[in-house]
Amino acid sequence: MAERPEDDADIEKRMTKMSGDLFAPSFAGEHLRVEGAEIEYFRDFLSVAVRDATMAELIRCVPWGAEKLVVWGKEFDQPRLIAWYGDSEKRYTYSGIKLEPLPWTSLLLDVRRRVQTITKNTFNSVLLNYYRDNRDSMGMHSDDERELGIRPVIASISIGEKRTFVMKHKRRLDLKPVRLPLESGSLLLMKGDTQRNWKHGIEKEKRPCGPRINLTFRSIVC
Question: pTM, whole model, 2 decimals?
Answer without folding.
Answer: 0.84
